[in-house]
Amino acid sequence: VVYARLAFQHKRGAGLVLTGLVLSLAGGALQASTLSAHVIWEFNHNGLYHLVQLAGVVFLLAGLRGTLSASRP
Asked: CA-CA distance, 45 to 64, in Å (whole number)?
């Protein structure tokens, strides 16, 4: 909720952090499901979780980097 509020206030990096958090939550929901997909290889629910989590970590790192660079003088 805090990062959603910061994103709506247009704070630098907050939108990327929020996206990363949403992707992490979506990955957790995927891991708890029984979904599977065939994209080059067959991915079960655990493989899909790791793919979504990987994207979430990239967004989190980009957002944190933006947040930290905004706080430097």
From this structure: 28
